[in-house]
Amino acid sequence: MSEKAFQDYYPADLSHCYGCGNNNAHGHQIKSFWDGEETVAEFNPLPEHTAIPGFVYGGLIASLIDCHGTGSASAAAYKAAGRELGSEPALRFVTANLNVDFLAPTPMGQTLKLRGTITECKEKKVVVDITVSAGETVCAKGRVIAVKMPASMAS
Ligand SMILES: CCCCCCCC(=O)SCCNC(=O)CCNC(=O)[C@H](O)C(C)(C)COP(=O)(O)OP(=O)(O)OC[C@H]1O[C@@H](n2cnc3c(N)ncnc32)[C@H](O)[C@@H]1OP(=O)(O)O
């Protein structure tokens, strides 16, 4: 994919997140995009993301769902407002609630594909439902309730 990801529009001072911040060299730097009305992201787990040899750590999967969810929430909010991604003032969302179901063991050595559906989109709250698949297998599903970032979290 050559277009800019949702996270590429985050201002530099909000790009330190371990899951999605471009400025976090040790983070996952997840990249999310529109695919029609849904959102997509891919991630290739590294050996250090192992749970049991051959299988991916669930905390990583939760982290991917978390940041694909908050990124999707931001993109959905811009879309609902009829605004260009990245236009000011920034519409940024944080996680209020993260719920994950681990449905099948997630194998190492495969690209994980995340697919998000915007279930609810209000001015202050966006709900995103997400699946994580390895090949044809849906290994996990999750729901992110994202709420507009409070002013107290801005630097
Ligand atoms: C910006 C780039 C970085 C990306 C971040 C990546 C993801 C992260 O890791 S963020 C870090 C983890 N998250 C946090 O630290 C957030 C800490 N919590 C908070 O700041 C606040 O509790 C916050 C903002 C979530 C909610 O603020 P608050 O003022 O209580 O919201 P409030 O106005 O009451 O509620 C708004 C809506 O959200 C819902 N809501 C609020 N909190 C929750 C919750 N914990 N669970 C479910 N729903 C909730 C409310 O029910 C309400 O829904 P509705 O409009 O349908 O009635």
Automatic annotation (TrEMBL):
It catalyses: tetradecanoyl-CoA + H2O = tetradecanoate + CoA + H(+); (9Z)-octadecenoyl-CoA + H2O = (9Z)-octadecenoate + CoA + H(+); hexadecanoyl-CoA + H2O = hexadecanoate + CoA + H(+); (5Z,8Z,11Z,14Z)-eicosatetraenoyl-CoA + H2O = (5Z,8Z,11Z,14Z)-eicosatetraenoate + CoA + H(+). It comes from the Bacteria. It is a peripheral membrane protein. Keywords: Apoptosis, Cell membrane, Cell projection, Cytoplasm, Fatty acid metabolism, Hydrolase, Lipid metabolism, Membrane, Transit peptide. It is found in: Cell projection, Ruffle membrane; Cytoplasm; Membrane. Gene3D superfamilies: Hotdog Thioesterase (3.10.129.10). GO terms for molecular function: thiolester hydrolase activity. GO terms for cellular component: cytoplasm; membrane. GO terms for biological process: fatty acid metabolic process. Its main location: membrane. Residues 54-137 form the Thioesterase domain. Its EC number is 3.1.2.2. CDD domains: PaaI_thioesterase. It is an enzyme of class 3 (hydrolase). Belongs to the THEM4/THEM5 thioesterase family. This is Acyl-coenzyme A thioesterase THEM4. The lineage of its organism: Bacteria, Pseudomonadati, Pseudomonadota, Alphaproteobacteria, Rhodospirillales.
